[in-house]
User: Fold these one by one.
Assistant:
Number 1:
Amino acid sequence: MSLSSDSALQYPLGQRLPGTGEAIEVAPGVRWVRMGLPFALDHINLWLLRDVADDGREGWAIVDAGIANDTTRAAWEQVFAHQLDGLPVLRVIVTHMHPDHMGLADWLCQRFDCRLWISATDWGAARLASQSTTSFGGEKAAAFFASHGLTDPAALDAVRARRNYYASMVPSVPTSYRRLMDGQRLRIGAHEWHAIAGYGHAPEHMALHAASLGVLISGDMVLPRISTNVSVIDLEPEADPLPLYLQSIERLRSVPNSTLVLPSHGRPFIGLHTRIQQLHDHHAERLADALAACREQPMSAADLMPALFRRALDLHQTTFAMGESLAHLHALQSRGDVRALRGDDGVWRFHATAPSHTA
């Protein structure tokens, strides 16, 4: 979901971006790597942190891994050859289980004989999804979207065909890991990092804050130009993720506003509290739009998409948009503003519980 706000945030690095295989130092011992993605959102930011092992060996911690494909592996090979100062990777930290973050984690861990660090919830979800032939696609997902009003046969056929969607980008997940937990403090090199759990976007996302550096690795929880995807999917069809997401970013106000935020997409920025408020305002507007639409007539998630997404969407974006539309409808339902009724056609539509108030 687009949400541009460049003028309200500061970008200390300006327009500078790391090229393929390049790393830019953004803080002492913190380097920025950027990998491509085959989607409309065409990149992911990954981070290198100077580290020291328990036995005194110097090296690096990698935060997030990129998707598993030959292009990303080749880019990592350039990083290994030119950006690590001849030092090994000592651990791999993954903020959450989504493919662009988890994809090559197992490859990295095996290559350097090191441990994956991740929340238990996201490790388990990634393990299940990578071993499933229907995760994030297949017949069940298509039936779920159809029950919420998606009728385009081509779109539904494409969803059915995505039987190996997650595993195609995350072919394997390490069989063992080190658990990250909310509030945990971990020493990475010369600095202490504080793990902050977030919900609504992934099962148990972990952001990392180093107060001594004035740096927050925000992962996908706070992005500078777009809003984080918050979706309901077929695996948890009655979920209510939007309030969880808004509560999670509100907790991040404990991090100073002057902090340099390192997001997974977009450029590093300063203005965390400003961005959090923008995201709250954005979702408040979208909830108001959704409720207004439901007051006009009962709305399915597919019916609501044009009111929330005012641009053409490809299949990848449509699946996200369906999930986001449903997340907003479920948030209204939990507030008591709408109720869901299933029609004779099998489609769930959300009916306003009170008429619109007019002057």
Note: The chain has two domains: 9-270, 282-352.
Number 2:
Amino acid sequence: MKHIYLSPFALCFLLFVLITPTPNNSISTLEVSTKDITNRTCKRCAEDSTAFSYDFCISSLQTIPASHATNLHGLAIIGMELALENATNTISTIKYLLSSGTFDRYALVRLRDCLELYTDAIVTIVDGVAAFLTEHYSVAEVKVSAVMEASTTCEEGFAEKKGVVSPLTEENFNLFQLSDISLCIIHILSLVEY
């Protein structure tokens, strides 16, 4: 997995979210110790889904130092921020691939489709963060699920023609997994809220 660096704006946003008190509710049982919140969360999510990668979850969230001293709300935001960073970087990769002159017409059409999917995914992630921050968890879940679907659609577009290999397999996998991390945490929080 490529290392992801957050912009100063994103880091300030994370800091704001992480120091803002969370609503008083029964999440405390899930957050007995923030020391291992990342491990507990990744383990729980991996137990709930066969598509979820525990190792990916741990390695992704642990790249952000704040994940070691946050709560579930903070982890969900970190996951969505990482997904946003991935989608932004993937758009740059797609633009480079489109201009490289190394792909046939079929692959170029698929790359343009992926560019559109990833451009839409950025807007969708931002909308998902906004819904999450206003505690509209069901809306946030729909938005994050749509981002996961975008990564899958991009990958499957290349597979429609025999022998064509997607040049974005790693990026699609990463976006899917980062979104899945956020989706799982949002789902956990939504269960606690009701």
Note: The helical segments are 8-19, 37-48, 54-61, 72-99, 105-133, 137-159, 169-193.
Number 3:
Amino acid sequence: MRQTKQLIAIIEREGDGYVALCPELDIASQGDTVEEARNNLVEALELFFETADPSEIEQRLHTEVFVTRLEVSIG
């Protein structure tokens, strides 16, 4: 039986495309659109979970990741 896991994806424009990062596992992918970058990241994560040793998953998985907005003084 397949399990599902909810993970964070941070997607940002880079040049003419988009880069998608999963900070919990430090796995990234890219695409020409936001949706393509997202889908490629899902595929990369699924391949990682299919092939990685459980000890590698445990070692890489950050269970506490916080995404927030900061205000900083400039100049």
Note: The domain at 1-75 is CATH 3.30.160.250 (Double Stranded RNA Binding Domain).
Number 4:
Amino acid sequence: MTDYYGMSHLVIGAIAALSFVIGSFFMRFWRVTGDRFFLLFGLSFWIETANRVMLGVLPAWREDLPAYYMVRLLAYALILYAIIDKNRRRD
């Protein structure tokens, strides 16, 4: 039977790895199209990757710290900005 500590690190690692892969896909689309939307989405997923890696590696970086959620807020704000920027009317 796997203990909670080991299982939580497994899930954190899986989320970090998949966030990195998704960010890489968005960056590839950005290189092909040059659309800032894909750049911002890719950066957002890579910020989330770094946040998850720090959560798994650094014992002092915990989910109950405000800084943890500030990093996530930054990532989600980039996504929101990308959507608003993409749908903004161009003159």
Note: The chain has a mean pLDDT of 89.
